[in-house]
Amino acid sequence: MTSENTRRRAWFASTVAGLALMAGAAVADEVTVFAAASMTNAMAEIEQRFEAATGHDLVVSLAGSSALARQIQQGAPADIFISANPGWMDALEKDGLIEEGQRYDLLNNSIVLIAHGEADPVEIGPGLDLVGLLGEGRLAMALVDAVPAGIYGKAALESLDLWDGVQTQVAQSDNVRAALALVATGEAPYGIVYATDAAAEDKVTVIGTFPADTHPPIVYPVADLANRDTPAEAEFLDYLRGPEAREAFERQGFVVVGQ
């Protein structure tokens, strides 16, 4: 009888443990986030902290906002999209690819002129001799008609009447981090990137910040995509508004909207 009771207790304990494991597996989920390449450093920190806090698996895909938006339009299985400008988010919303009421503005940024290595600051305005500064070199930028950082940069240069003089010397890259890399390696002596990108690379120097009134406001909206609806997605959107995410963003030089 004692042996039988022992077996029953062992069976009961193993069953309870198994159910607990199954319950834990049911609670944990995977959240796929498509985020602008300029968020690379911040998202690496947020990924680690969110997973530790919730047990969920955060899968982050980083690229130019235009490329990510087109992938979503073509059916890529993303759950959350963070764009580096409202335009691409607007396009997805128009296509019915965003959950209604599940979009908000998350971050602000600025664009800067950077140089390879050490360099003296310049005054960014209509009088800037950018052609003379470049000489025979190239100006690295993200795609000026598709990627937000490139769009903002071109708008700023046009506002200052500098675009026509330098457009033939612009070396365009698929995303802003690729443009940053061109300057960091010395392949291009100068470039236009986000302030947050420049802060992440010690091989470049910020030599000037473009005035905010020379380009549209740099806003990063975030949204839950309309392909599935899980508690984990809601948890991540809430986490982005919380203190740990705010600290991660501010460490990289972002301004958190509403803070």
TrEMBL record:
One of its GO terms (molecular function) is molybdate ion binding. Molybdate binds at residues 38, 65, 149, 176, 194. GO terms for cellular component: outer membrane-bounded periplasmic space; plasma membrane. InterPro entries: ModA, ModA/WtpA. GO terms for biological process: molybdate ion transport. The keyword S-adenosyl-L-methionine does not apply. It is found in: Cell membrane. Keywords: Cell membrane, Membrane, Metal-binding, Molybdenum, Signal, Transport, Tungsten. Residues 1-28 form the signal peptide. Belongs to the bacterial solute-binding protein ModA family. Involved in the transport of molybdenum into the cell. Part of the binding-protein-dependent transport system ModABCD. The complex is composed of two ATP-binding proteins (ModC), two transmembrane proteins (ModB) and a solute-binding protein (ModA). This is Molybdate-binding protein ModA. It comes from Thalassovita mangrovi. The lineage of its organism: Bacteria, Pseudomonadati, Pseudomonadota, Alphaproteobacteria, Rhodobacterales. The gene is modA.
